[in-house]
Amino acid sequence: MAVTTFIDQGYDETTMERIAELAEVGTSTLYRYFPSKELLLLAPYAEVVDPGRYLRARPVSEPTGVALAGALLDLGDDYADPSRRIPEIRRILDSSPVPRARVWDVLLQSRADLEAALAERMGLPATDHSVQISAGIALDVFYRVDEERKSGDREDYRALFREALASLSTTTIVLPVLP
């Protein structure tokens, strides 16, 4: 309901009081769970943009690379689920300075969580470079797919993720190495 109000009325025009009224809860109750308007808007976005959660949900018998690809595809499915309205939330986040600044907090937390989930699967500490670089590549795939979707006419996240993931097997990735 809050997301619909933000989408219909705009971020700046929507008040916490109006959301509380629509939710039929007291304003103080709403503020107890969401201390600010931007946190209320970010909550559904943060829930979906958490690849570590999707990775943990994959079967433990899957090889790590397969599980990571599956996690990104699952994330893409939820991201594109019309009932979640994540692309619409993302448009609001991109156009509103205060919540846009908070997106970085969400993305940093999702990266840390993905590194922790990958570390568990890889049997390495989350601080290991292999874990961190693997997480970075996976997140870059997500960011690139999201940017491609925003700049084009394609809405099918699963197809975009599949194309991006397939390109990794044929792309020459150059890692910086010391001579």
UniProtKB/TrEMBL annotation:
> One Pfam family from the UniProt entry?
TetR_N
SUPFAM superfamilies from the UniProt entry: Homeodomain-like (SSF46689)
Keywords, in A-Z order: DNA-binding, Transcription, Transcription regulation
Portion annotated as DNA-binding? 15-34
Q: Which InterPro entries match?
A: Homeodomain-like_sf, HTH-type_TetR-like_transc_reg, HTH_TetR
- The record places domain HTH tetR-type at 1-52
The record's PANTHER family line, in alphabetical order, gives: HTH-TYPE TRANSCRIPTIONAL REGULATOR BETI, HTH-TYPE TRANSCRIPTIONAL REGULATOR RUTR
Q: What is this protein called?
A: HTH tetR-type domain-containing protein
What is the scientific name of the source organism?
Frondihabitans sucicola
What is the phylogenetic placement of the source species in the record? Answer: Bacteria, Bacillati, Actinomycetota, Actinomycetes, Micrococcales
